[in-house]
Design brief:
The chain is α/β, with parallel strands linked by helices and 451 residues long. It is 22% helix and 28% strand. The structure holds uridine-diphosphate-N-acetylglucosamine and calcium ion.
């Protein structure tokens, strides 16, 4: 049986207290909507329909960025979850299969859970995902009758007795396409919020003699995000899972709880991550490398056997070949660094190409920006860039070339040449001692006057 995903994401998320639609708030540097889409993608759905309303254009862009085949439909007014799901009706008109409804603000449903729901569909017209809540709060309550789900009652409409139930609605539902939309047709808005509740399809299905059941999952999977506090909780849940995954893959995290990962971070086996390292989006670190404490990486690639940090910053387009060393207070952006090259101290390397086994001295800077445009620096292999060299781009330094410390290099340096571009030294014998004498006498006089 093929499946279609319908992701409800039209709500404003008032409690986020934000100008941005709720589902675009990020967890591990990806919108929560993308996490939901990723969860649903595990089912290899035939269709993905995202129902958007608040911030429609931005939500559409984020959805299509993740999945260009996703269909984003408009729910102009938010009249409730049944009304929202109904917006997918036209798109799925010719679809013959199961529809699974997910919420854009409930991003952590696992593939295993979705598969268990699909298995339960064999004997049921409607399958709802529930969970035992530690604090049931305002979740809808699942009213069971043995293994059958009788109905769902929203918190606002529940009696005290019903509110005492701790088995709650995650919002995820599964039904055959035809059944889902037929049931939605029967939903009314006679309830505390005057909305069309998708949850009402359960009672309606039962009244029609259809079988309905609930599948249970861990509460952590159903974490629904309604506030910044929930968002922070969701981030913590994501991070702790992602760290455990890395540990299982053979990555050492010396102090796991201090390492921040992104939704797409890839780290190879036998790599060691020291404490307080931040992985922004788009980072790949190969096997057997060491990322030292307090480093910040994003949009970069570190090949095997490298070391980065402590206190290094790798920005988008930093591409390090094997066995590259990047040391403390070094920033690298949009630059290819050849195998075995060392940039160990206090440098900025931006918009550059560096060859193999070259040594970049402390304090070297590629001056890539003239205030209007960016320019490229090229350095060959086995070169030696003296400490505190300013490379004023566009400029190139050849293979096996050298620059003298403190040079400001404005012209290309050919292979094997030494370039010196600094003022000549002036040395005056005995002058230091005389100067010291004068200064000491001055200080003595000042001290006596102030007594
Ligand atoms: C919903 C459920 C509740 C469940 C809870 C789990 C209903 C009636 N209630 O309540 O049983 O315990 O989720 O988190 O379904 N949305 C739209 N258009 C609308 C209304 C909502 O797209 O007109 C979207 C929201 O953007 C959100 C999702 O549907 O992603 C859930 O809506 P929300 O208002 O947060 O429902 P809850 O009150 O949390
Ligand atoms: Ca909600």
């Amino acid at each position: 049986m093929s499946t279609a995903l319908v992701i409800l994401a039209a709500g404003k998320g008032t409690r986020m207290n934000s100008d941005m639609p709720k589902v675009l708030h990020q967890i591990a540097n990806a919108p929560m909507l993308v996490h939901t889409m990723q969860a649903g993608a595990a089912l290899a759905p035939e269709h993905t329909v995202v129902v958007a309303g608040h911030g429609f254009d931005a939500v559409k862009a984020a959805a299509e960025d993740f999945d260009p085949d996703a269909k984003v439909v408009l729910q102009a007014e938010q009249n409730g979850t049944a009304h929202a799901a109904n917006m997918a009706r036209e798109t799925l008109a010719d679809f013959d299969g199961d529809v699974i409804v997910l919420f854009g603000d409930t991003p952590f449903i696992s593939a295993d859970t979705l598969e268990r729901m699909i298995a339960a569909r064999a004997d049921n017209a409607v399958v709802v995902l529930g969970f035992e809540a530690a604090d049931a709060g305002k979740y809808g309550r699942l009213i069971m009758d043995g293994t059958s789900l009788e109905r769902i009652v929203e918190f606002a409409d529940a009696s005290d007795e019903e509110r005492a139930v701790t088995f709650c609605n995650s919002g995820v539902m599964l039904a055959k396409r035809q059944d889902l939309f037929d049931l939605i047709d029967a939903v009314g808005s006679d309830n505390a919020q005057g909305e069309l509740y998708l949850t009402d399809i359960v009672g309606i299905a039962r009244a029609q003699g259809l079988a309905v059941t609930a599948v249970t999952c861990e509460e952590a999977e159903t974490l629904g995000i309604n506030s910044r506090a929930h968002l922070a909780q969701a981030e913590a849940v994501f991070q702790s899972r992602a760290r455990v995954e890395l540990l299982d893959l053979g990555v050492t995290l010396q102090q796991p709880e201090t390492v921040m990962l992104s939704f797409d971070t890839v780290i190879g086996r036998d790599t060691v991550i020291e404490p307080n390292v931040y992985f922004g989006p788009g980072v790949t670190v190969e096997s057997g490398t060491r990322i030292r404490a307090f480093s910040h990486l994003e949009g970069c690639h570190v090949s095997r056997g490298g070391t980065v940090g402590p206190y290094a910053r790798l920005r988008p387009g930093a591409e390090l070949a094997e066995h590259v060393h990047v040391g403390n207070f070094v920033e690298i952006k949009n630059a290819e660094v050849g195998e075995g090259t060392k940039i160990n101290h206090l440098s900025y390397i931006g918009d550059a190409t560096l060859g193999r086994t070259t040594n970049i001295g402390a304090g070297t800077i590629t001056c890539n920006y003239d205030g209007v445009m960016k320019h490229h620096t090229t350095i060959g292999s086995n070169a030696f860039i003296g400490s505190n060299t300013m490379l004023v781009a566009p400029v190139s330094v050849g293979n096996e070339a050298m620059t003298g410390s403190g040079s400001v290099i404005t012209k290309d340096v050919p292979d094997a040449a030494l370039a010196l571009a600094r003022a000549d030294q002036v040395t005056k014998p005995g002058v230091a001692r005389k100067l010291f004498d004068i200064l000491k006498k001055k200080k003595l006089k000042r001290d006596q006057e102030s007594q």
